[in-house]
Structures are given as C-alpha cells and as structure tokens.
Amino acid sequence: xxxxxxxxxxxxxxxxxxxxxxxxxxxxxxxxxxxxxxxxxxxxxxxxxxxxxxxxxxxxxxxxxxxxxxxxxxxxxxxxxxxxxxxxxxxxxxxxxxxxxxxxxxxxxxxxxxxxxxxxxxxxxxxxxx
Length: 130
Description:
By secondary structure, the protein is α+β, with helices and mostly antiparallel strands. The protein has one domain (9-127): Beta Polymerase, domain 2 (2-Layer Sandwich), CATH 3.30.460.10. It is built from five helices and four strands. The chain has a four-stranded mixed β-sheet, with helices on both faces. The longest helix has 24 residues, at 9-32. The chain starts with 8 loop residues before the first helix and ends in a 9-residue tail after the last strand.
C-alpha cells in the first residue's frame, strides 16, 4: 500500500526526507572539497538514524591520514561552524589518526559500535551532488 498523498501531512514527511538528503549531500560535497582529505568520513548516531531532536548532536567520525595539522584543524573548525549554521544542531566530531582508530576498533569503543550500527559513509559518491 502506497502513501496517501491526500493526507496533508504527506507533504511534511516528503519535505523532511528531502531535507535530510540535502544535508547528507551538503556534508559530502563539503568534505569532497577539503584540501586535506580524511581516510574515513562517517555520520553516525541520531543524525544517521534520523531520530534526533533539535537538541541532538550531529555526530561525525573522520579518520585522519596522520597527525593533526593546522590545515586539518581549520577545515574541521569551519565545517563545525557550517553544520551549526545549516542545522542549528551542535556537531560532535571525533577525528582519530589511523592508529587510534584501530585501537578503538580493537577495544570495541562505543563510537565504533555506533558507526557500525548506523553509520553513513560520506565519502561514498552516492551522496555527492556533482
């Protein structure tokens, strides 16, 4: 059975779905333009599950290629501010280097479990606009 398009709430639901997809594309497009690319970029938590509220964080995991540097920190800080502007929600960014990420995986860190359960790969071409 399909959606009842006569129901007035149908337009609201469709708008919410479109808004979420627009956010995913905006996140992916922005990351694709970074001068220092991450090895991994994943949206996880309530934003990935689409069950957050106005008070929820936007949880992101970036696995850096190596130690943090000024260029990396600048692009992440700019991104953090843009996400807050776009959504009104505060981003929570975790950005370990590869060794730290491997240790987190080995220790079954709760972030790893959340990424596995509901992570959305923002490096996937499926989310890019162009």
